Amino acid sequence: MTKAEHGGSDFVITHTFDAPRELVFQSWVEPERLAQWWGPVGFELSVLALELKPGGVFHYGMRADNGYEMWGKLTYQVIEAPEKIVSILSFADREGNVVPHPVSATWPLQAHNTMTLSEQDGKTTMTLRSVPHEASELEHATFKEGHESMKQGFGATFAQLAKYLARVQ
Fold this sequence. Notes:
By secondary structure, the protein is of the alpha+beta class. The protein has a single domain (about 1-169), classed as Alpha-D-Glucose-1,6-Bisphosphate, Chain A, domain 4. It has 4 helices and 8 strands. It has helices spanning about 20-30, 30-35, 135-145, 145-169, and strands at about 1-5, 10-15, 45-50, 55-65, 70-80, 85-90, 110-120, 125-130. The protein has an 8-stranded antiparallel β-sheet.
């Protein structure tokens, strides 16, 4: 189950998984697990770097069946296993340099993301809050206009995570 809310340009999405918190957390931080579910449907993930520490980077590439490639980067700010990851997310190039959104010149270069995990009765609720980071008013407005698309994209990605969790328990 996924639900999204937004106030201002903040984007918040929540999903409850039928899996323990430790497994959900591991699925976010272990390359072999990430490769099973991360990214848009139909893309294959390549983990170029994953340094799970404040200041560390998760640099990844995604390749579609038609050959289209794109890269992204998370720079970790806070890691409190297994309950919280705070990071700065951006599109990147193959070398890990921050680059603009591939189709939107006014999309923020970076977003500040806070993911929290809480467990109750063997189910884990994940909440992801994303806010434009060091962004102009126009970039905030573009980000807010993209909330519905983000809801669909994250919803599909979290559905892939749910399928992965069901397979590995």
